[in-house]
Amino acid sequence: MWNNFLLSLEIMAKGMSGIFVAILIIMAVVWLLARLTGSQK
After folding, report:
1. pLDDT tens track for 1-41
2. Going by C-beta distance under 8 Å and a sequence separation of 6 or more, which residues neighbour residue 18?
């Protein structure tokens, strides 16, 4: 029982960190694109 709980916590932590990293990457790409397209005008 306790072992399963710890295992599910570990899986949840991996999922949350994956989502967090994906959001950071998307924000960085959007920021870069905004800077690149903004400087051309």
Report:
1. 888 999 999 999 999 999 999 999 999 999 999 999 987 65
2. none
CA distances from 41 to 7, 25, 28, 34, 37 (A): 52, 25, 21, 11, 7
DSSP-derived secondary structure letter, 1? -
Q: Tokens for 18, please give them.
A: 């994956």
Burial 5-27 (b: 16+ CB within 10 A, else e): eeeeeeeeeeeeeeeeeeeeeee
pTM: 0.63
